[in-house]
Every structure is written in C-alpha cells, then in structure tokens.
C-alpha cells in the first residue's frame, strides 16, 4: 500500500483520511452490516454507538482489515485510506494494520517486559536503532512514562488494568500509525482509569485520527467530535442510522430511532 504522492506526502483527499463507501460485511450467509458509508475526518475523534449486535465492532474491524482473519468473513464495498481502497488486490493487509492501529476492549499486553511490549512491534516493522528513545516517547505519548520509567524490565502483566490499557495504546502509537481504532477501550476499567483513557484520547487526537466504539453514551458525548449511530434490522443486520457532529446527534437527532436510543427508550 502506498497512499503517497511521489514526494512521499499523503495523497490529497480533502479533510477525510478514511472513507467507507457502501460497506457490507457477511459472515457466511449472515449479512452482518449493510451499506455503511461514513467519512472520518483527520485529527478528530469519531464515536460509533448503538445497541448490541448493530455492527459497530464489525465496521471498526473492517477499517483495518481485521475481519480478514475471520475465515467466513466477506467484505463488499470500499474503505479508502488517503483515497486508496484498502481492499484492492495489491494492498498488503499487514501494512494496513501498521498504518491503522487497533486497541482492543480488554487490555492485552504481551507476556514480556514493559520495554519489550513497546519494542517488539517496532522491531517487527524493521526499526533497530534509537529503541530507548522510541520506547520512552511512546510511553510518554500514552501518559505512562512517569509511572513505569523505573520498572521497564518488569512484566507488562504486573501493571493495573488501566495501566495495561495505556501500555497497549503506547504499543500502538510506537509504530506511528495514522489512525487509532479503539474497541470499547475503557469498558473493563474503573471510573478513574476510564477518565485517564478519555483524557489521553483528547491529547492523542492532536497527532492521530481516532475511531472509538463505545456503549457508554456519556463517554461518546464527552470525547468525540462526530458520532455515528448504528441500529439493527429485525433480521439482525446492522446499518448506519445517523451520522453527524456529536453535539447535534445528542441534542437534536434527525432520526426518531436515534432519539429513542439516546433517551433510553430502547437499546
């Protein structure tokens, strides 16, 4: 994948770094997501919300080809990154996942030292020099450096849940992606750790584009610039019901279904 011009700068594509166009996802005979079209603006946080089973995480995993790892998955439509369709035959899925990182719901540090949790992915991507600086900058970027700088040789599994999640974020940003996808990154954390993750997102968005799946509507309202509300048909196919600026979605939704969900009448 090379979404760059000959001079190495990102190809011009307006303000949108990532665009899904008529995205459909099937798992075997099950139509999981139908005709999702959504634009993700550079250096903004977009929240995907909606009831369970509406396809939020399926869409998220489609944005960096994580669904390729599911044998029965079939993707139709386009996901354009700097204008290049990520599902074109000449696109390397591993490179997609380097440029579009993922942080999962449950913290999943490697059973390695804190230092090696960061360094491993960097080495896999071919970087060998300045590793100490890279590790420090990634941990600083995840607001974790001051808490772990004196115990870098300790296991990442020795950290608290909130620290482990920030370690996973540090691991993701160490390879300098353009986009960070977050699948309910605070759902397994206590309120204090959740606040730290939310504060971290508002800092990271200065340098990265963030897409977050969350069941917590208050979290979406607090941290995101844009919100996409997904709903589900009677046959359990997810679809995008409404998308707009977060303030508009939460104060004056255009769809009755969106309003009913926001106000707690269903979901």
Structure summary:
This protein is of the alpha/beta class.
Summarize the topology:
Blueprint: E1 16-27, E2 30-41, E3 45-49, H1 56-62, E4 73-81, E5 84-85, H2 93-99, E6 100-103, H3 114-124, H4 131-141, H5 145-148, H6 161-173, E7 179-183, H7 191-204, E8 209-213, H8 217-223, E9 226-232, E10 238-245, H9 246-251, H10 256-262
Parallel strand pairs: 3-8, 3-9, 6-7, 7-8
Antiparallel strand pairs: 1-2, 1-4, 4-5, 9-10
Helix pairs in contact: 3-4, 3-6, 4-6, 6-7
Provide structural commentary.
By secondary structure, the protein is an alpha/beta fold. It has a domain of 178 residues: Rossmann fold. The protein has 10 helices and 10 strands. The strands form 2 sheets. The chain has a 6-stranded mixed beta sheet, sandwiched between helices. The protein has a 4-stranded antiparallel beta sheet with strand order 2-1-4-5, covered by helices on one side. A hairpin with a 5-residue loop joins strand 9 and strand 10. The longest helix has 14 residues. The termini are far apart. The N terminus is likely disordered.
The percentage of residues in β strands lies in 25-35%
Order of strands in the sheet with most strands: 6-7-8-3-9-10
The CATH topology of the domain at 16-108 and 178-262 is given as Rossmann fold
Shape: globular
CATH architecture of the domain at 16-108 and 178-262: 3-Layer(aba) Sandwich
The class by helix and strand makeup works out as alpha/beta
| Poorly predicted runs | 3-12
Cα Rg: 19 Å
**Span from first to last CA?**
39 Å
Helix share of residues?
25-40%
**What is the residue-averaged pLDDT?**
92
Return the string of H and E elements. Answer: EEEHEEHEHHHHEHEHEEHH
> So, the CATH homologous superfamily of the domain at 16-108 and 178-262?
P-loop containing nucleotide triphosphate hydrolases
């Amino acid at each position: 994948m090379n979404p760059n011009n000959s001079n190495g700068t990102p190809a011009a594509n307006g303000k949108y770094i990532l665009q899904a166009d008529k995205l459909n996802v099937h798992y075997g005979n099950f139509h999981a997501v139908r005709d999702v079209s959504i634009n993700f603006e550079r250096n903004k946080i977009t929240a995907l919300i909606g009831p369970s089973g509406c396809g939020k995480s399926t869409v998220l995993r489609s944005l960096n080809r994580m669904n390729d790892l599911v044998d029965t998955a079939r993707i139709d439509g386009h996901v354009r990154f700097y204008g290049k369709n990520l599902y074109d035959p000449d696109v390397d899925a591993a490179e997609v996942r380097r440029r579009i990182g993922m942080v999962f719901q449950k913290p999943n540090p490697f059973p390695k030292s804190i230092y090696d949790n960061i360094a491993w992915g960097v080495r896999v991507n071919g970087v060998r020099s300045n590793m100490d600086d890279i590790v420090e900058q990634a941990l600083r970027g995840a607001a974790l450096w001051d808490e772990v700088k004196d115990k870098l040789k300790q296991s990442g599994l020795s950290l608290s849940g909130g620290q482990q999640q920030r370690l996973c974020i540090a691991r993701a940003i160490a390879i300098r992606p353009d986009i960070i996808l977050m699948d309910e990154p605070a759902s397994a954390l206590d309120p204090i750790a959740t606040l730290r993750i939310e504060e971290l997102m508002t800092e990271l968005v200065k340098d990265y584009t963030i897409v977050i799946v969350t069941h917590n509507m208050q979290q979406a309202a607090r941290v995101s610039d844009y919100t996409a509300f997904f709903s589900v048909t009677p046959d359990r196919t997810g679809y995008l019901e409404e998308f707009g600026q977060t303030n508009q979605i939460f104060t004056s939704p255009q769809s009755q279904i969106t309003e009913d969900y926001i106000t707690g009448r269903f979901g």
